[in-house]
Amino acid sequence: MTRILLVDDHPLFLDGVRAALTGATDLEVVGEAHDGAGAIAMAAELTPDVVLMDLNLPDLSGVEATSRILSTSADVRVLMMTMSADDDAVVAAMRAGARGYVVKGAGRDDLLHAIRTIAAGGAVFSPTVADRLGRFFSGLATGGGREAFPQLTEREREVLDLVARGLENRRIARELFLSDKTVRNHVSNILAKLGVADRSEAIARARAAGLGD
């Protein structure tokens, strides 16, 4: 029996996932969490085999929640749920230790196959994501001079550089001729893609990579 923890902040979506798992005699839902902090606490308490994790949560990102769960429970296997397989945060989640992802709206058979695959020790990647991961880790292994944080867009890298210099969002908006809201969105995306918990951790990572000078 594979024990599953569901993590999503939309009750109707959880109802659909629960219904999809009904009748699968080898799968058992042992708990539900509605935010990242709850997911971390329940994963530690329930020790599920699989965590079905939403990528976008109201407090922590799914990437950060995954990283924290796996830092204390390495045997747990995390399957991300995302609206788009092209989301850069999917790659960040894989780097954080997730074993694969399933697109929200996938059919029941696809969902069950993904859960069973990672529960058995496998991985569920699309060719595109697998290729991006391969190129990223190849660059790390060979020291091939890849630009810092290749998962970030050029604009996100600009924003991160200014964050690492100690600038607040309003000042960054003036420097780059952007709205405050756009800068906030960029910072949120940067934290998710780097798999970090907060701005100070992002600054530390950026300065270690040579940004912010």
From TrEMBL:
The chain residues annotated with the modification 4-aspartylphosphate are 54
Pinpoint the HTH luxR-type domain residues: 145-210
Q: Does the keyword Thylakoid apply?
A: no
Q: Which domain of life is it from?
A: Bacteria
* Protein keywords: DNA-binding, Phosphoprotein, Transcription, Transcription regulation
Tell me the SUPFAM superfamilies matching this sequence: C-terminal effector domain of the bipartite response regulators (SSF46894), CheY-like (SSF52172)
Protein name as catalogued: Response regulator
The species is Nocardioides agri
The organism's taxonomy opens as: Bacteria, Bacillati, Actinomycetota, Actinomycetes, Propionibacteriales
